Amino acid sequence: MSRYIRASSPSPSGESSDLDLDLEELDPTNGGGGAGGGGGGAGYSAGYRSILGENHRSSFSPTRRGRTSVDGVGGPGRIALRRMKGRGSPEDEEALLGRRSEEDTRDEGGLSNPRDGGETRVVGLRPGGTGGKYPPNIISNHKFTPFTFLPLTLWHEFSFFFNLYFLLVALSQCIPALRIGYLSSYIVPLVFVLAITLGKEAHDDIARRRRDTEANSEPYEVLSFTDGGVPRRKKGVRLGKKSVTGAEGQALGGGGDDDDDDDVVVKTVLKKSKDLKVGDILVLRKDDRVPADVVVLKTISNEPNHAEQGGGNDASGETFIRTDQLDGETDWKLRLAPALTQALHSSSLAHLTITASAPSKEVNDFVGSISYDPPARGPTTPPTLGSSTTLTPSASSSSLAALPATVSSSMGLSVDNTAWANTVLASNSTTLAAIVYTGPETRAALSTSRSRSKTGLLEKEIDNLTIILCVLTFSLSIALVAFQGFKNNQNKPGVKDPENPGEVVSGSWYIKIFRFLVLFSTIIPISLRVNLDMGKSAYAWFIERDKGIKGTVVRTSTIPEELGRVEYLLSDKTGTLTQNDMELKKIHVGTVSYAGEAMDEVADYIRLGFSAGGGNATSGGVQASPAIHSNAATTRTRREIGSRVRDVVLALALCHNVTPTTATEEGASEATTTYQASSPDEIAIVRWTESVGLRLSHRDRKGMRLQDVGTGQVVVRVKILEVFPFTSEGKRMGIVVQFMAGEKGEEPDLLGGGGAGEESSNTGDIWFYQKGADTVMSSIVQANDWLDEECGNMAREGLRTLVVGRKKLSVQRYQEFSSKHKAASLLLVNRDKEMGRVVEEYLEHDLELLGVTGVEDKLQRDVKPSLELLRNAGIKIWMLTGDKVETARCVAVSAKLVSRGQYVHTIAKLKRKDHAYDALEFLRNKTDSCLLIDGESLALFLDMYKSEFISLAVQLPAVIACRCTPTQKADVARLIRAFTKKRICCIGDGGNDVSMIQAADVGVGIVGKEGRQASLAADFSIEQFCHLTKLLVWHGRNSYKRSAKLAQFVMHRGLVISVCQTVFSVASRFEPIALYQGWLLVGYASLYTMAPVFSLVLDRDVDEHLANLYPELYKELTEGRSLSYRTFFVWVIVSTYQGVIIQGLSQIFVGLDHFRRMVSVSFTVLVLNELIMVALEITTWHMWMIFAELGTALVFFASIPLLGEYFELKYVISWAFLWRVAVISVISLVPPWVVKAVMRKLKPPSYAKVRGI
């Protein structure tokens, strides 16, 4: 059995080899370096090596490096640990940092109750681990269960006052003394209304359950470990019912020593997503959605060229994920497998234990550790640290079992080792990952709020008006009883129908009050809910079948009127305002600019400059220097321009963090190359360099190769010496490369101690390339007279500018820089500042300015005119995004969210309360500016100055919030709602927007590249942002105006008949006698008036062209004038007048002695009055309106012969009946119509002005 011994460093400078990385991270007692390590802190820092390997000390920031560390009492890992919610005892800190064995932690209670609030959890990956202690991995978006559906829906329905009122009225009819007419007249309408509403809720929730079931049933491969005494295959691992061979099979089931866990059989089994448990090891492949929060353990490359070389195990442990469904950023994120687990055999993964922090909603923070605890295999001889035994790459994980007890087999974990639920694996590799959080404890679930039942503002306004009507009803009932006197008379007949002498029953005064309340219940028409709900369904039907916004889906059909009341629009950026499709549009090289068709000239320069025969090639056409020789026959000016162009293209092809991957799609015969990077800008630039002839063919942590697209030959090979990643603070990215002329095996190590003569014979020049924002690069590059002007021109075009420069370094200069930079990286105090100072001193000054690039983030179709129209409609627009500050600023300018010349006030990186107060004071004097704020500063404002901040922010014309978490987006939406009491619309397209969408009054989801999660959770789903304007300005307007008019007419219909009942009761000596009974009462609210009143859902005051031409019309809707207290009381006056005229004149013309004749006249006039009032209120006639008016009139007159129980039919066919009906109708209708015409002439409404009528 081989022993796992640290090899001595071959480098005299103290630089350890890549193989030393594993042991130094496992052995915190090793100080690192040839000197044997120093004291605590220094030893920790020296021992640490970036996982990117040799010569990559600066590839990761010092902060990230600290998080991954496993030692150092005061190191950053310890500091990050103390920020955990349940930090507690020092013992817990020791366990989490991996400095104590799992047995010690277990003995001292580390496993006692890992799920208690704020405590860490210890997850064993062995079979039958800790999965049962944690919640199941179930996605749940539904609102109800079979047991809670009826109680919750009924509670919600009866929270509306008029529903509760009608329930009490219906229940009162069970008391004989209060019964008036038929019991079904009051019970059936209520049941009908509730059945419609409950049916809609059930349908929507069943659809949500169906979507949840699909997600929960998605199959995933999980590693299964069995102790069957069956030797493991050496060239493949059994996957379910089949065996996988090749690179992936070797990595999963082979590749180690033969004696490594020979009694363990590793296979994969399929599990549904809902059956996954904490501790399961997933097998994830490209484009697989991560079903739970996981820690990456091992990556296995599927690259064809990698497999041909015989290695499935990717030594770097790198994989890329897409997090657009979590934080809105579509650029790929690099994730790393810990060096400890990457080196292990798959069968040894069962002996791992992960210690993780408590569940949290922080997607950018994670602290944990992982330890390896192999089973005992008998006595072993402890190796001596520092011995000369060499560790080969084929050393298996069984060798780890030979580690002495004093050597730690643990590593710290950070967010770089994780992949959260709903992220997607982007790399063409197989990734093994262990589940640590499931179901409701995942980051995605904790950042998503529960869906709520949304109630429109119109319904709340109608509910308030209903309360007024109820008070009016109660007051009227008491007044009528008071006029008679509060007497407890014996039951005696009153004025009644002679044919039904027992109909009237008088009694105690309180009984009369209750009977009057029942009689006047029509004032609060229960059909109002039926009409409004049917109207909402009609509006949803119109929206979904609008050919102008194809693909729109209405998922919440209860709030279409809210589309017409929106005053604040909160929008995501990536995929919502933009297509998330970057393209390099323009490049400027100082004297000439290239764009569009001129890019063909750039391609010609590249083809000539990098041809196999033309250049300083010493081996196979590979360039040893960027100083490329040009054709001498060309003119001097053209040579200079060609040289400039080639230099800037080469710089762009090298200065990036892009990795090419090759994969063969299903059904394709040839492999295709795709690019992976953490920034879409860089991918766009590398694609552009390929389009002009220079392709990135290979990149790893040590070097890059560039290919000529035409010939396919490698023309540039460089060794990567240093990488300086882009940061929001630095706003620039740099790289130091060494041009290589020979084959890869001939590349010398600059820091390896070779002689200068040897180096000069095999190496090319060393160059430092850098690209960044013009604001920082202008002081780094050499003096020039065109940079500021050209950057300004590109910015005005909405392009994202990058300035590119370079600097040549001698070997001696680079070695001097490298030693000082390494020394600065070992500091524990002011590390970032010192490293930056060294870079600035040696590299970042007097760079040769090569050129400026302009990259366009393509906007969605018609975004600019859409935003302008919405602003003119009075809607204030906020952009909330998880993207960078610079990116958000560029998009805001290009989308015209920020008007030309408008001042943009930026607030970023605020940490102190006094600085936040100063920023607020500045904003008070700049209310015409646009605010650009990052998530960190926003959190400070919301904690310290919530009311002051929001009171100022809502006054600004535009607000842009960057680096927002999903929770912050939702908090901002709720805060605006609570402070302004206005309607909020939120629109987004990613899973990170779900919380914001659900917190809004109106949630709109876009079906886009980021998936369908937002569209499924939204109230309305659209396919493009420009569809939102039609949804709001046209459909929102129609829905609100129609519902307002519909509600007014339904209330008018109930008020008129109630006034008629009041007049009759007064004439009946204040007795609670029913004027209209049975079918007359039911038919009036349904068959005889419902169709004409409901046809108002087809009315429109302006056409779509005028609504878009005059968006200011929308602004009036937000004021709520269509249904206000003023319009309500106008309709009350009209209803009172018409009711008094109809019933009063009927009693005068016919008399109370002829009850059935009087009912015939008054009821006929009542129906005709309602039909004609609807006709007078229609603005734009529709065919179905005419059909409803004429059809209802025909139905009424045709049904009169069936009303012999209530009408005197012989009297109905007489001239006396006809002239009385005509005269009463004219007196009832003409005065209100005349008053309306005069008012409209004196003060015409806005829609009449734009229509010219």
What are the SSEs and their pairings?
Blueprint: H1 18-26, H2 40-47, H3 62-67, H4 76-82, H5 90-96, H6 102-107, E1 121-124, H7 149-157, H8 161-172, H9 184-216, E2 219-226, E3 236-239, E4 242-245, H10 246-253, E5 265-272, E6 281-284, E7 293-301, H11 304-308, E8 318-322, H12 324-327, E9 333-336, H13 339-342, E10 352-356, E11 368-372, E12 410-413, E13 418-419, E14 424-425, E15 429-437, H14 443-446, H15 457-484, H16 509-519, H17 527-544, E16 553-554, E17 566-571, E18 578-588, E19 593-595, H18 599-609, E20 617-619, E21 622-623, H19 636-654, E22 659-663, E23 672-676, H20 680-691, E24 694-699, E25 703-708, E26 714-724, E27 732-740, H21 756-762, E28 763-772, H22 774-777, H23 787-796, E29 800-809, H24 811-825, H25 831-842, E30 848-859, H26 863-872, E31 876-880, H27 885-894, E32 904-907, H28 913-924, E33 930-934, H29 935-944, H30 946-953, E34 958-962, H31 966-980, E35 983-988, H32 994-999, E36 1002-1006, H33 1013-1017, E37 1020-1022, H34 1027-1067, H35 1079-1085, H36 1090-1094, H37 1104-1109, H38 1112-1117, H39 1125-1150, H40 1155-1177, H41 1183-1199, H42 1209-1212, H43 1215-1242, ...
Parallel strand pairs: 17-31, 17-35, 31-34, 32-33, 33-34, 35-36, 36-37
Antiparallel strand pairs: 1-10, 2-5, 2-6, 3-4, 6-15, 7-13, 7-15, 8-9, 8-14, 10-11, 11-12, 16-37, 18-19, 18-30, 20-21, 22-23, 24-25, 25-26, 26-27, 27-28, 28-29, 29-30
Helix pairs in contact: 7-9, 9-17, 15-16, 15-34, 17-34, 18-19, 19-20, 24-25, 34-39, 34-40, 39-40, 39-43, 40-41, 40-43
